[in-house]
Design brief:
The chain has helices at residues 5-32, 41-102, 106-114, 119-194, 196-258, 286-289, 294-305; strands spanning 318-321, 324-328, 332-336, 339-342, 348-350, 355-363, 366-373, 376-386, 393-394, 399-405, 411-418, 423-424. The chain has 433 residues and is an alpha+beta fold. The strands form two sheets. Strands 1, 4, 5, 6, 7, 8, 9, 10, 11 and 12 form a ten-stranded antiparallel beta sheet that branches. A hairpin with a 2-residue loop joins strand 7 (366-373) and strand 8.
Length: 433
């Protein structure tokens, strides 16, 4: 079903309001750092976020202007069509009135009726005269209705033009704001370049810390795989023992039956219920090794099916550094194995999906948590405190810790997602903001 103009207009207005709210929020975040004369990568990330939001707002206003242009064209067409129709109706009505005036004698009507060939013909002529009178009345009503539609069309045209002018003014202010933000970004980049030594040291320290995080995550995955394999092996051993015991019982029963030995409670082995064996996954298949139970298989499938719609670990979080290679001021680069997300120091960090806490660690006085989601893992590092323990089952949105400050003095965490073979881009898994 086609979307109505009103619904489309409301959708654009709602989007604009949301963008304005996000812009104000990002501006407040940026103002919080203005107390310090030293610029940081967090400042650069915040201004980049504002630039993206401002561009989206301008795009929204452009679509609003296009929508208003279409509405203006439609209103103009309606006005022209109704004006032309009104002229035609008035002309037809005028001709009808002139004809009626020239033939308004009562004798003419009577002669028209009494000159009928038969009584039925006379009835038809009377009916015709009544229909003609009704037709003239309808003509007058059509003229009044068309005049009303014409007036409404003119009002609607004026309203749409006002909306377009308002949107143009708002867009002009948004473009001015975008230009100011671009200047502000240039100033931040200039200051960061001037702080080249400090920035380089921070990146080196961060690289060292992230190397430790990657090592810890790999260790957590390796231990989880070993535990899963051991669990599967234990289940397989239990199943084999149960099957061997059952085979022995079946063999003794068959021997007794062949020798016509009557069964009694003392000598006849009691048949135990058969325990169905659970096939142990092949060790080389690492993905299968991490899915020893049906519950693990289902959890893994659910995690994959929610790709692109997982919640962010921090409410109102923003990206400081993307996954992969990041170009930084001064020609510096950092290859980020995860996603660095900014937020208020002490803010709650939440699990992005259901799973089991398989690992907790402390790296340079900062805490790290690893949660297993089937054959996938999510790791949260740079936490000031944690509220979960190893082996605990958590659900989507459960608070697992608090945001710590980074080397720049701003709140941030690092989120990593691994598929047991390599790290994947968390941005592709989190819902779009």
């Amino acid at each position: 079903m086609a979307q109505s103009a009103t619904d489309k207009q409301q959708e654009l207005e709602n989007e604009r309001q949301q963008l304005n709210e996000e812009l104000n929020e990002k501006q407040n975040l940026l103002k919080q750092n203005k107390q310090s004369t030293r610029q940081s990568l967090s400042d650069l990330a915040k201004i980049n976020n504002r630039l993206q939001l401002q561009a989206r707002l301008i795009n929204n206003l452009s679509r609003q202007i296009d929508f208003d242009d279409d509405s203006i064209v439609k209103s103009q067409q309606d006005v022209r069509r109704n004006a032309s129709l009104l002229d035609t109706l008035k002309l037809q009505y005028a001709k009808s009135m002139v004809y009626s005036y020239k033939n308004s004698s009562n004798s003419d009507f009577l002669n028209f009726i009494f000159s009928a060939y038969s009584f039925n013909d006379a009835i038809k002529r009377v009916t015709y005269l009544k229909s003609y009178r009704n037709y003239r009345e309808l003509q007058a009503e059509d003229i009044l209705k068309t005049e009303q539609l014409l007036r409404q069309g003119i009002v609607e045209l004026s309203r749409n033009k006002d909306k377009k002018n308002e949107a143009l003014q708002t867009q002009s202010k948004a473009k001015d704001a975008l230009a100011d933000q671009q200047k502000e970004k240039a100033q931040i980049v200039t200051q960061l370049k001037a702080q080249g030594k400090e920035l380089s040291d921070e990146i080196a320290a961060r690289k060292k810390q992230m190397t430790k995080v990657k090592t810890e995550l790999a260790s957590a995955i390796r231990k989880a795989r070993q535990e899963a394999i051991a669990q599967a092996k234990a289940q397989a051993d239990l199943a084999r023992k149960a099957k061997a015991a059952q085979d022995k019982i079946d063999k003794q029963n068959a021997l007794n039956a062949a020798n016509n030995i009557p069964a009694d409670n003392k000598n006849t082995p009691v048949t135990k219920p058969v325990i169905k064996p659970v096939a142990a996954p092949a060790a080389p298949q690492q993905q299968l090794a991490l899915l020893p139970t049906a519950a693990d298989v289902n959890l893994n499938a659910n995690f994959i099916s929610n790709k692109g719609s997982l919640p962010w670990p921090i409410d109102k979080g923003y990206i400081i550094m993307h996954f992969g290679l990041n170009d930084l001021p001064g020609g510096l680069q950092e290859d980020n194995p995860g996603l660095t997300i900014g937020g208020d120091i002490g803010a709650s960090v939440k699990a992005i999906f259901d799973g089991e806490v398989t690992y907790t660690s402390t790296i340079d006085d900062m805490h790290m948590i690893v949660i297993k989601h089937g054959a996938y893992f999510s790791a949260y590092s740079n936490l000031s405190s944690i509220t979960v323990t190893k082996g605990q089952i958590v659900h989507t949105g459960d608070v697992i810790g608090k945001v710590a400050s980074n080397d720049e003095g701003n709140g941030s965490i690092d989120l990593m997602i691994s598929n047991d073979k390599d790290n994947v881009n968390p941005e592709l898994w989190l819902r779009h903001k």
